[in-house]
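Tokens for Putative metal chaperone YciC. Go.
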Amino acid sequence: MKILIMGGFLGSGKTSVVIQLAKFMAGENPDKPYKVVIIENEIGEVGIDDKILSKIGYKVEGMFSGCVCCTISGELVLNVLDIMKNMNPDYIIMESTGVAYPNNIKEILEESIKDIDCRICCVTDAKRWKRLLKPMELLLKDQLKNADVILINKVDAIDSDTLIEVDESVKTFNNTAQFFHVSAIEPIDSNILTQVLGQVEKGAV
């Protein structure tokens, strides 16, 4: 079972990325699309419109009682086990709340559930990075430090010099992840989406 944990501070653009990932996985092979379930924690976030996703055959499991890495970790594990048993998807995409620590979520899942492969993608807001860095440094560091992929979003909203500064700053927290620049006003390139997802095999569960 593949699980992608989407992290990033409030307003960074996680929901937009999740929707693009879902559409990409549906469109890659329309005759036999991937079976994907999206787990969303909507506290403090704009919720994913399940009508958008239902058109391409995806279910959204919402969790509303708090941050997935602390107050409802038990519920999270039960939800994932239930999804594995009853839906048997190829992939679970989990959008965490903006104040969650993705690696904590990964540890909870891997300690509680056998035969899962968790991957972390964090989305950063290039436009607000400097403004957020000082008051939110510890949170941002903990969100980014164990990410497999980091998407530096909203690069269309800053100049090239600022982008270089943002890149250098983000890499002080994690210099081993794959880094990609994405725009808030243009679709994400399919090659980037492939790297975010990693290797996915249909019917692997």
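The radius of gyration is 16 Å.
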